[in-house]
Amino acid sequence: MRKNRILALSFLLIMAGLGLSKSGWARPGDAADPLVTKSYVMKVISENFNPMAQTLASVDSKLDDLLQRTVSAQKQLVPFSDVYQAEYSPAIARIYHLGLIKGYPDGTFRPNGPISRSEMATLLVRAKKLALTTRKIYFKDVYSGYWAYQYIATAKLSGLVTGYPDNTFRPTRQVTRGEAAALIYRAYAKSLIAVQSAPKYSDMTKHWARPYVDYLTKAGVIPVEAGGKFNPDAPATRLWVVEALAKLQ
């Protein structure tokens, strides 16, 4: 629709340049009027093609209204200020409306940002609909008042996550793609069904996370990566994790 409007305006500008305007105004590009303004175009239209002017004005108004309603609807579907691209919306919207994610206090989701071990544990507990435990756990770096304490405790006692040999959980540490694959597999192993073959990534031949990546790919939970590499030790993005979990809900 906008393309058609631009074509119509271009046509009218050409006609105006041929001398059809009776307004006496300077033509676009003249010293007196070096810029092509909307008011100039509308004046030319109204004086020479009044019926078209009325139609174009009506279309312009309807288009603006449609765009405003579209933006409003999208904000209701995905209320994050940094989520506008259409390909992000379905998975993020689904996970949001299931109550698995809430975003950040500033109203953003940060789809391309990393995800921490605390956030990953929280997502898995919510996705599996596990009741939060009241039992205590002990990690040297996770105190009882920590925002994700109950989620981490529930995930640990449910076998979804483990700590490190030094009895730490490292809650703020970024989760790698390989680790995320392992955690998702551990949570959903019993419900995964292989539907395709696994790709042969050159950087996964001897990697510890290969079995998990292979099976999640076979089940269609994670996409096949282009370029022949999986990059298992790169940080997993929030969007990557959410898209995988959305397919399992």
TrEMBL record:
It comes from the Bacteria. The keyword Repeat applies. InterPro entries: Cell_Envelope_Struct_Comp, SLH_dom. Residues 75-134, 135-198, 199-249 form the SLH domain. Keywords: Repeat. It holds the Pfam family SLH. This is S-layer homology domain-containing protein.
